[in-house]
Design a protein that fits this description.
14 helices, mainly alpha, about 400 residues, 6 strands, two-stranded antiparallel ribbon, two-stranded antiparallel sheet, lipid-linked peptidoglycan transporter activity, about 5% strand
Length: about 400
């Protein structure tokens, strides 16, 4: 086909990635439905979430990149307002759940006739958009002074502090994802290496200190606001965690994170090379449609299915990295948005697959594009829509350049 006669809106590789993830998600959720955890029709609801996501992608492509950058502030402020509303909202209204408390925190709204709505998932996209706008408007790398770098870091910290703090009160795992995104965007923003090294050292020391407190002084950790289930997730990950009295007292063996990981590993192993098929799953895994969806893929489609999923994520990440470099001369906002969006995909993929195979602690982080959940699917597809828009605009810029 003559490339010049092809519509710039046809980005074949991104469309293929989208369709592949859609098919994998629906089939895996259908397979997990035999355990009855989210109902046998969860896969049909996932199709609906994807269809709404397609509408969002199409709508986003009616905007140009400059308009999306202008909208970033309003989306960011709207996300913060939703997080604040969630914090102050009553757990129930008229006897029905509205902002229920689970594990000592409120993480989502319950909307009648719609389901649950988790603001923190959408806040991740809003945060990436706002940071991309701030970094994109800064003086380009090579022209900045040390004072400019310090001022940029202060602006980034000011943007990130409120949403990350509010999210931490709901879900430490999601807050950690946001911090990872911020760190990656700072790292690639061109800030002086000395400043990055200093900040990185401080962050590493703080994380090490928090982990040490959780492991060595769990009672004190609870007093400073760390929830018991968060402590259990860390201690369950340790090699000798099975002998800790604290975990034994707070979790039943059948519902513990350790049990969940053991079942996930068993399910992946049971799939062997080619899997047992969609309707022949034998290993029960808690949270099969959400956190542990990768183990379902492993048992249903074996090593081949797992490898295909990993390859598709590598394909998407590679495509985004190429887009980051090529769109940068035309739109710094789009380039840095793709940096943050790539960081989001990387950390979710690494963490989720890692906890399914027992090399990372269980944090409740979904496998993006694949795990069941309206908020997760819609938020990641909104981000995908912005990246798709950037790819379309790049095609237009390049076609104009070579005419």
């Amino acid at each position: 086909m003559n490339k010049q006669n092809t519509s710039p809106y046809y980005q074949g590789d991104l469309i293929f990635i989208f369709l592949a993830f859609f098919a994998i998600s629906v089939i895996a959720i259908y397979a997990a439905g035999q355990f009855g955890q989210y109902g046998s029709n969860a896969w049909t609801r996932q199709i609906i979430y994807y269809m709404v996501g397609v509408i969002c992608i199409v709508a986003i492509n009616y905007f140009d990149l400059e308009q999306l950058e202008k909208l970033s502030l309003y989306i960011f402020i709207g996300g913060i307002m939703l997080l604040i509303l969630l914090k102050i909202a009553p757990a129930q209204i008229a006897g029905h759940d509205f902002a229920p408390i689970k594990n000592g925190a409120k993480s989502w709204f319950v909307l009648p006739g719609i389901g649950t709505f988790q603001p923190s998932e959408f806040m991740k996209i809003g945060l990436i958009m706002m940071l991309a706008s701030v970094i994109g408007k800064a003086t380009p790398r090579g022209k900045r002074t040390l004072e400019d770098d310090i001022f940029l870091l202060l602006k980034i910290a000011g943007v990130a502090a409120v949403p990350v703090g509010l999210i931490f009160l709901q879900d430490a795992g999601t807050a950690a994802v946001c911090m990872f995104i911020v760190v990656v965007m700072v790292f690639l923003s061109g800030v002086n290496w000395k400043l990055i090294s200093l900040i990185g050292s401080v962050v590493v020391l703080l994380v090490a200190a928090v982990l040490a407190v959780i492991i060595l002084f769990p009672d004190f950790a609870q007093k400073i606001g760390i929830q018991q289930y968060q402590i259990n997730r860390i201690t369950a990950w340790l090699p000798d965690s099975s002998s800790t009295a604290n975990q034994a007292q707070t979790q039943d063996a059948s519902g513990s994170d350790k049990y969940q990981v053991e079942q996930a590993i068993m399910a992946i192993g049971a799939g062997q090379i080619f899997g047992n098929g969609v309707k022949n799953l034998k290993v029960y895994v808690p949270e099969a449609q959400t956190d542990m969806i990768f183990s379902i893929i492993g048992e249903a489609f074996g090593f081949v299915g797992c490898a295909f999923v990993v390859i598709m994520f590598f394909f998407l990440i590679y495509r985004l990295v190429v887009l980051i470099d090529r769109i940068h001369p035309y739109s710094r906002f789009a380039s840095f948005f793709c940096v943050g969006y790539t960081a989001l995909i990387v950390i979710h993929t690494f963490q989720n697959i890692g906890m399914n195979i027992g090399v990372m602690p269980v944090t409740g982080i979904p496998l993006l594009f694949i795990s069941f959940g309206g908020s997760s699917v819609l938020s990641v597809l909104i981000g995908f829509g912005i990246a798709y828009n950037a790819s379309v605009q790049l095609t237009k810029y390049q076609s104009y350049l070579f005419k």
